[in-house]
Amino acid sequence: MRGLTAARIRRFLSDTATWESYYDNVADISFPLGGGPVLEDGLAFRFGTFGRGRPGPAAWTARQDGAPEEGLDVPHVWLVEDLSGGRVRILTRETQIGRPAAALARQTPNPVPNGHQAWLDGLVRAAEAA
């Protein structure tokens, strides 16, 4: 993206109070041990997405304990960096391990990459509007 900086993007990614303003697949953000709404190393937080509440920073691991048909392990990483020419690169990568993730992967259209693209698009729109 041209005309944006990594710092501007990170502001919207790290402040969970802004998430619902630009991404409609997130809800019920909470900090069970206190802190927030700005993410920092070691801060525990939860949020709902795809109809599920998950603990979850620009990198987090979400876990949903339970029987094999319910358990999930979901590492999610964001890379936001300034490039030459006044550009910024925003990459996100997520790996989902567990039966619920396998079921999502078989859906057409697949809600996970579509949801991540919506998050990226909303993040850019919010940063551009700020």
From TrEMBL:
Top-level lineage group: Bacteria
InterPro entries from the UniProt entry: START-like_dom_sf (IPR023393)
Annotated protein name in UniProt: Polyketide cyclase
Organism this protein belongs to: Streptomyces corchorusii
Higher taxonomy: Bacteria, Bacillati, Actinomycetota, Actinomycetes, Kitasatosporales
